[in-house]
Write a structure and sequence with these properties.
heterodimer; A: alpha/beta; Rossmann fold; 4-stranded antiparallel sheet; globular; B: mainly alpha; 63% helix
C-alpha cells in the first residue's frame, strides 16, 4: 500500500453569496381571485376553465347511501344527483369517504368483503344492485389515482376492453376503428398513432393516464368515475387531462374525486364537500367556493384544515 | 446528472464530505466503528469465497467434461463391457432426464400456477387456504427419498397398474409415470411460491382497473395477472425443473434405475417406454462415480458436464423471459 505523499488539498470555504436571491424562490404573492368571485374565507388562485353547462340530464341518483366497513361508517346518508353535461367533483380531507362513495357507484366496494352499503343508487332509474356487476361496470367505468395501463401494447389495452371476457378473438382489423376513436376521445391518438404496438407501460405518466381514460371510454360508458386522476402527474399533464375532462362532460356524466381544491374549482360544475362521511355541502362550484353556506366548508375551502 | 453550478460544492467543517457524483455514490465505511468495519470485511470475504467455490465447481466440470465428453456418448446407450471404451455412452440416461423433466414440469406447472392463483386471488374459505399453504410448505420440506417411498406405495397399487409393468397381478410400480408424478411434487412448492410472489406484486388497483371496465375475475386473471407474472412463473418453473433434473432418490426408488430403457412388452410406442423403467443422468453419474456399480469416473464427469449445461441453459432461458418482461415495463409505485 502506498501512503499519500502529497498533502490533501486545503479546505476551501466559499463566501456565502448575497442571500437576497433566495427570497425569489419564496411562494409567489397571491394572484388574482378566480373570476371575481371573492370568497370571504379567501379561496384564491384558480381560474375556472369550464363554462356553463349546455344541458344536464340526470343519469345517476345517490339516494340516502351509507357505506360502512366492519363497524366503521365511511359514508353516512349521502344523497346526490349525477348529471350528464356536468362535472361533479367530490372534495374533502383524507378519509372523508369520497373515494368510497365513488367506488360504490360501480359496485367496486363489493370487492371489499367487509363493506356494507345501505340506501339506493340508481342508474337511469334502475337500482344498480339489480344490474349484473360486469354490465354495470361497463356503463359506469373508472379511472384510478395511479396510472395503471395493462402490461401490453397501447392497442391491446383498448382492445382488451372491447373483446369478450377473456377472449382474444376479433381481429385487429375489426377492432381498429373503435380503438382509434377511444384513443381520439382521450386526446391520445395523435401522439401514439404511429406506434400502437408500443408497450403501454413505457408511455409517460400523463400519457398512461390518458390511456386509462381511453380505456374507460372504450366501454362506451354513461358515467365516468375519476379517482384523483392527476395526483400522480406533473402540472402539464394535469392541464391536458383537465381540458379533456371538461370536453368529455357532454358525452358522459363525469364524477371526479380530488384533493386539489383549485382543480375542483377549475373544472367542476357542481361540488360536493364531504367531511367524516357526511355530505356537508353540495352546490355549484362558484357558490361553494365563493360563498359557502356551512361553517365547515368555509374553513376547509380557506385552508383552515384539511 | 449534470450540475448547473460552476463552483465546486463547498463543504463546511461541520458537514460530512459531499457525496460522490453519479449513480453509485456510496457512503464510505471510513467513519464506521471498528466492529462494523470488521463485519463488512467478513461479508466481503464470504461473498468472494462463495464466488470462488462456484467458479471452481463450474470450471472444474468444464475442464473435465470437455476432456472426457465425446459426442458419441450422447447417442450410444450404456452397454456391458470390460473397459470404459467398451461400455457405451449414456443416451438412455440423457433421454430419461428429458422425459422426466418434461412430464414432471407438465404436471407441476399447471397445478402450481392454479394453486397459486387460487391462494392469491380467491383464498376462500380462509381456513382451507391456510391449510393448503402449510401443506405445500411441508411438501417442500419433505426429503425426496420419503416422497419416493410414498410413491412406491401408491404406484404399486393394483388400480394404478396401468402406469407401470405388472405381471400376474403384481404391480412393479416403477416407471417414468411414477417417477414424474412424484418429481412434480418436488417442483410444485417452488412454482407455487414463485407464482404467488408474482401475483401479489401486482398492485390492487390494476385488478380493479380491469374489473372497472366490466371484466370478470377469470378474464382478469387470464389476460392481465398471469401474463404480468410471467417472469416469476418462469423463475419458479426453472427452479422446479432444476430440482427435477437434479433429483436422484426418486429416480432410484421409482424409476427402477436400470442402465437402459426397459420398455414394457405389449404396449404401443410411447406408452411402452413410459410405463417401463429407465434411468436419468443423475442416476448415471451416481452409478458411474467411484462409489457406484459402474465405476467409470470419466463418464461420470462427462454426464455431469451435460447436466451442468442443461441447468445453465435453463438459467439463460429465464433471463430471456425477464428481459422481455422488462421491455414491457411495470407499474410505478
Amino acid at each position: 500500500m502506498e501512503f499519500l505523499t502529497t498533502p490533501p488539498p486545503p479546505i476551501r470555504r466559499l463566501e456565502l453569496e448575497d442571500p437576497a436571491p433566495a427570497q425569489q424562490a419564496a411562494p409567489p404573492a397571491q394572484t388574482e381571485n378566480g373570476d371575481g368571485a371573492s370568497a370571504p374565507g379567501g379561496f384564491t388562485g384558480a381560474r375556472r376553465s369550464i363554462g356553463a353547462p349546455q344541458f344536464s340530464i340526470r343519469r345517476m341518483e345517490i339516494d340516502h347511501v351509507s357505506v360502512s366497513y366492519s363497524n366503521r361508517d365511511a359514508v353516512k346518508d349521502v344523497s346526490l344527483p349525477v348529471r350528464q353535461g356536468e362535472v361533479l367533483s367530490l372534495i374533502g380531507p383524507s378519509g372523508c369517504g369520497k373515494t368510497t362513495l365513488l367506488r360504490s357507484l360501480n359496485r367496486l366496494t363489493e370487492l371489499t368483503s367487509t363493506a356494507k352499503l345501505r340506501g339506493r343508487i340508481l342508474l337511469d332509474d334502475v337500482d344498480i344492485s339489480l344490474i349484473e356487476p360486469t354490465l354495470l361496470r361497463r356503463r359506469v367505468t373508472m379511472v384510478f389515482q395511479q396510472p395503471n395501463p395493462f402490461p401490453m401494447s397501447v392497442f391491446d389495452n383498448i382492445a382488451y376492453v372491447l373483446r369478450e371476457q377473456g377472449s382474444r378473438r376479433q381481429r385487429k382489423k375489426t377492432l381498429e376503428p373503435a380503438v382509434h376513436s377511444a384513443l381520439d376521445r382521450a386526446g391520445l391518438f395523435e401522439e401514439v398513432k404511429d406506434n400502437l404496438d408500443h408497450p403501454a407501460l413505457k408511455l409517460s405518466g400523463g400519457q398512461q393516464q390518458r390511456l386509462c381514460i381511453a380505456r374507460a371510454l372504450a366501454a362506451e360508458p354513461e358515467v365516468l368515475l375519476l379517482d384523483e386522476p392527476c395526483s400522480a402527474l406533473d402540472p402539464q399533464s394535469t392541464q391536458v387531462i383537465e381540458d379533456l375532462i371538461v370536453k368529455l362532460r357532454d358525452d358522459v356524466a363525469v364524477v371526479i374525486v380530488t384533493h386539489n381544491l383549485q382543480q375542483a374549482y377549475r373544472i367542476a360544475d357542481h361540488v360536493a364537500f364531504m367531511y367524516l362521511g357526511d355530505l356537508v355541502e353540495y352546490s355549484s362550484a362558484t357558490a361553494l367556493f365563493g360563498s359557502p353556506r356551512e361553517q365547515r366548508t368555509q374553513e376547509y375551502v380557506s385552508g383552515a384544515f384539511g | 446528472m449534470g450540475s448547473s453550478v460552476a463552483t465546486p460544492p463547498a463543504p463546511t467543517p461541520a458537514s460530512s464530505p459531499p457525496p460522490r457524483k453519479g449513480k453509485d455514490a456510496v457512503e464510505g465505511s471510513a467513519t464506521w466503528r471498528p466492529a462494523d468495519r470488521i463485519g463488512l470485511a467478513i461479508c466481503w470475504a464470504l461473498g468472494l469465497l462463495f464466488c470462488a467455490i462456484a467458479v471452481a465447481i463450474v470450471a472444474y466440470l468444464f475442464v473435465q467434461g470437455i476432456k472426457f465428453l465425446k459426442p458419441e456418448m450422447l447417442v450410444t446407450p450404456a452397454s456391458a463391457g470390460f473397459s470404459q471404451g467398451e461400455s457405451g455412452g449414456f443416451s438412455d440416461a440423457l433421454f430419461g432426464t428429458l422425459i422426466v423433466a418434461t412430464m414432471g414440469i407438465a404436471l407441476a406447472l399447471p397445478t402450481g400456477v392454479g394453486i397459486a392463483v387460487w391462494l392469491v386471488e380467491y383464498g376462500r374459505p380462509t381456513a382451507l387456504a391456510r391449510v393448503t399453504e402449510s401443506t405445500i410448505e411441508s411438501i417442500a420440506g419433505i426429503p425426496s427419498i420419503v416422497l419416493a417411498l410414498f410413491g412406491t406405495v401408491i404406484f404399486s397399487s393394483t388400480a394404478l397398474g396401468f402406469l407401470s409393468r405388472s405381471s400376474e397381478g403384481v404391480v412393479f410400480g416403477r416407471s417414468f409415470f411414477a417417477a414424474s408424478a412424484m418429481l412434480s411434487l418436488v417442483a410444485l412448492p417452488l412454482i407455487v411460491a414463485s407464482t404467488r410472489e408474482g401475483l401479489s406484486s401486482i398492485p390492487r388497483h390494476v385488478r380493479e382497473a380491469s374489473y372497472a371496465v366490466g371484466k370478470t375475475k377469470a378474464a382478469t386473471t387470464r389476460r392481465i395477472l398471469l401474463p404480468a407474472s410471467r417472469p416469476q412463473v418462469a423463475t419458479g418453473a426453472m427452479l422446479g425443473l432444476g430440482r427435477i433434473i437434479g433429483d436422484t432418490a426418486i429416480i432410484i426408488v421409482l424409476l427402477g434405475a436400470t442402465q437402459n430403457f426397459a420398455p414394457v412388452e405389449g404396449a404401443s410406442f410411447p406408452l411402452n417406454y413410459l410405463r417401463g423403467a429407465g434411468t436419468t443422468l443423475t442416476n448415471f453419474v451416481y452409478e458411474a462415480s467411484p462409489t457406484g456399480n459402474l465405476n467409470q469416473p470419466e463418464k461420470a464427469y462427462a454426464a455431469a458436464f451435460v447436466l451442468l449445461l442443461m441447468v445453465l441453459a435453463l438459467n439463460g432461458a429465464v433471463d430471456v423471459v425477464h428481459r422481455r418482461a422488462r421491455k414491457v415495463g411495470t407499474w410505478s409505485s
